[in-house]
Each structure stands twice: as structure tokens, then as C-alpha cells.
Amino acid sequence: MSAIIEVSGVAKTFRQPKRLPGLGGAIRSLFSRDYTEVRAVQDVSFAIAPGEAVGYLGPNGAGKSTMIKMMTGILVPTAGSLSVLGREPHAHRMTNAAEIGVVFGQRSQLWWDLPVRDSFDLHRHIYEVPEARFADNLAFLTTMLGMADYLDRPVRQLSLGQRMRAEIAMALLHDPKILFLDEPTIGLDVVAKDAVRKFLAQINRERGTTIILTTHDLQDIEEICPRLIMVDDGKLLFDGELPRLRAALGSRRRLRLEFGSDPGPITLTTARLVTDDGAAKHFLLDAEDTSILDVLTELGSGYDLKDVTLEEPAIEEVIRTFYQSKPQRAAEAL
Amino acid sequence: MKARAYAAFTVNAFQSRLAYRSAVWSAAFGDLVFIFARIAIWVSVYGAATSTMTDGVTLPQAITYAIIAGPVLYWDFARLLHDVGTAIQTGDVAVYLLKPLHYPAFLLASHIGHFLFELLLVVLPVVVIAGLTYGMVPPASLFHALAFLGYWALSFMMLFALASLAGLAAFWLMTASALEWFLMSIMTLLSGGLVPLWLFPGWLAAIAGHLPFAWVSYYPAAVYLGRLDVSQTLLYFAIGLVWLAVLLGALAWLWTRARHRLIVQGG
Questions:
Q1: Which pLDDT score is estimated for A330?
Q2: Under CATH, which number does the domain A50-246 receive?
Q3: Owning domain of residue B161
Q4: Inter-residue contact A48 to A26 (CB < 8 Å)
């Protein structure tokens, strides 16, 4: 299927007036015309197919929100080209807006003083959702997100978790083809985060809504997004599936063998010994396709083997090593 | 355009105000104190004045002018300025760009809601109390009464356009409060809301009488009292419409500039 979002060579540079320190500096900067150029996004390219769920991951200030704003049409790229649903988003703001849903974790789109239901109703008018369709969607979303008991409460009385669920529901009321979420789980507790993740994964799976979400929480990506786009300093570091990231990093699995008594030194070709505590030995499996069976076969049956544990590297660790070894690794991974 | 959506904004703005019921009482009380203070000034002025000084306007007419030009026509535009100012400062204005709607039209729709709320729950009770206490004269004629309604709508739109323009300037100044003071003082002097233009020195009245501010308070109240004859009433209504068109044009232009700045510069 052809891409629903195409980003090629996109860059965004902001010009910020230079602020000089102190009161004198503040007065001088009223008249000065000095600017610093901030490159928020540099030469980023990717394509997203309909029905995909993509996690856009990066540390603070990596240019995630800037990218979301460009895709939703409220920022114009400085360079490169960008097409969403076959259109240039900022040039067709109204049509684009009608076909996408956007949720900002840190910015509410609900009407503060009104009951949730009234905000939804307003949304129905803005997006001209047919009455029957709206009723169906509202019923579905209310059940799925467990909003029934606070639908009639004013937004200002809701907890953050309740509000975020309402925000997501509202963004889906007009059946958008693409749902953009900018840090949707920020500040939520474990239960609320879990509810939001499960729901987003389900919407993506069952309704085929394309999801693009920015986050710096890796669990969001593990549970919702098979595909990961990683950025830092505005540059693309990695684009692909999570297992591929592990493979690209050469992240090795760790094997622990526990014996009844110290078998003495063991050397294997399938696994490399890293620590030897006598009865307990740790090995690293360097090759991706080595199975435990291979190791055990090589080991043979002459040992008093009590326990075998294989640890997959934690994704947190994978990503940490990735960022730490950025300059060299990035080139290899891509 | 989505008329239903904008009508819904009006209704919602009205409803959201119901959440702050105690604010109604303080607003009504404040308005009442203010109008009684102004009427007291007119009463004492008329006690010492001769008819040439008052330009042939009787005390009941002056009181009526104070009530109409004050609470009735001069609605609380600071709320509009604040709305626009904070939306720009916090970046929430981007949220409006994400929706398929026109931000200035949204502002107009919701401030009609605020205006109707204040009219029904604050202004009308204040006018009734002040009117019953001091007496109000009726409109000069049926023509003037009908013309007043037209001028009233024009007055609302004029103040809306002026306040929105000042609010959008926050895109460049990053704050709306400086302009709030500026607009507030200009309006106090030039709208004729506090002192009618017929008491201004001739040259100042000539200038003020041709600036858009005068259509906010002075002309509607003057028409109500019959200070303008039929042809003048129609002529000045037409001039007011031209001013309104100019201001709305400026508003559309400024909004385009602001939006451009927002999508290029990120606010």
C-alpha cells in the first residue's frame, strides 16, 4: 500500500532573538536584531503506511514535537517536503485538520468549564460528524475508555488520567485516518498509562487507525508500536522494528548456567564466558541465531547442570547503549 | 461555513459562564456602584451648570446617556483581550489551528455568548435598578429606537474588532496587558462613554467623532436620545460600517500575518 505520510529531507530551523544577560542586556535586546539559529529537525526522512503504529522516540529537545507539528500542519518545514494523506499539511490546513486527530499530553483541547459531554458535542459540530455515527463512536469510546461515570462532570474536576482518556476519545470522535499523539502518557500513573496503551493498541489493530506517537517512555513503544523511529538532536538515528534495533546494536543475550558443583573451566564456541563464579557461569551469546539447545549440545551431558537462564537485553538498556554510542552506532545501524 | 458549530460556541460560552455564578453578583454590584457614581457626577454638574454649558441636554437625558453609553454599550472587552493574549502566550492558539475552524470567527461566536450572558444577567438588572431610581427617558422616536438597535449591533462589532486587533498584537509583543491599558484609556476618552462628545472642545469632538471609537458608545447613545436627525443617523451609520469594514479587514490581515508567523516561527 502506498504511504499515508511521506517525509523526505525535512528540516526545521527556528530563529530566536538573542537574549543578552542582565537588565542592560534586556533593554539592548529590545533593539538588537541578533538571532541564534536553532536547528530543531535536520534532514529527516521516513514513510508511514496506512494502519501502522509508529513510535517517535527521543530525549527532551530532540525535535519530536516539532515533527508532530509539521505533520499536523501547524508548522512549516524550512526545507524538504512533507505529505500527509497526499497533501501538504500546512497548505491545506482545514482539510488536513478534518482527517486527522491530535492529542497533546501537555495541552488540553477540552473545554475547561464544560462537562466532558459538552466538549464532545462541540467537537461533533466542528467536524460535522453525522448524528448516528457520533452516537456510535461515543458509545464505543465511553465503554472502551471507561468514561461513563465522569462524562457529565466538568473537565476541571477530572483527574489527569480521566482527562487524558477524554482527550484521546475526543480526538477519535470524527474517525480520523491518522491519530497523532504527543507524549500521551506523560504524568499518568501506572494504571492510567496501561489503560491508554491498551486502548491505543486496540484502536490501531481493530479500526486500522494509523498511530504516530512521540514519547520518551519505552514501554509505550513496546506495547503500542511495532515500529520505532529514533531521533536525537533533530537527526534520525534509527527507523525500523524493535528486534532489528537489538540486532543492529548487536545486543547480546546473556546465558547463566548453574551447576551442582564447580565443573572447572569450560570453553565453548557457541557462547563466550564473561564471568566465572565457580558453580555459576555467565556466557554471552554473540550470534543472534544461537539457541540454548546449541549451547547445551556443545556442552554435552557430562556436567551436573542444575539450572539454565537466558536473559534478553532490556529495551531500556538497548536504547541507553544506543544513545551513548550515538555517533559511531548511528552510522552502523542505518 | 459551519454555522452550527459557531452557534454551539456561543451557547457554550454562555453556559461556561454559569459555572461562576458568584461572579455575576460581583459584576452587577460593581456596575451598579459605577453607574451611580457617574449619575451623581451629572447631578452635581447640572446643579451648577447653565443650559449653554450642557448643550441643551437635560439632566434626565444626561442620566439616560450615562446608563446607555456606560454599562449597556461598553461591554467587558478585557476578557476578549485576555483570551487572545493567553492563547498566544501559552501557545494554546495552536490548538485552534489544529481544528477545521476559523479562529477569529470562533472568537466572535464565543464572545457573543459572553456578551449575551452579561446582558441578561448583569446589564439588564443594573439598567432596571438605575432606571427605576433615577428615571430614564424613552428613545426620541420610533425611528431612533430602531436605529439604536442597528447602532448597538455595530457598536458590538466595532469593539470586538478593536479588542481582537489589540489582542492579536500579542503575537509580536508577547503580552496583551500593555495594549489592554492603552486601549482602555483610549476608549475611555474617545468612545464618549464617560463624557459625551458634545461636551468636548470643538476640535477634539471633530476628531473623536470621526474615529471608530465613537461608534462604540457615543453615536448609539446619541441616536437613542435623538441628537442626530434622520439623515445624520443614516450617514453616520454608513460611515460606521466603512470603519467596521476597515477594522475587520485589518483583523483578517493581521490574523493571516500572525498565523504565518506561528507556522513559521512556532509562536
A1: 47
A2: 3.40.50.300
A3: 3-265
A4: no
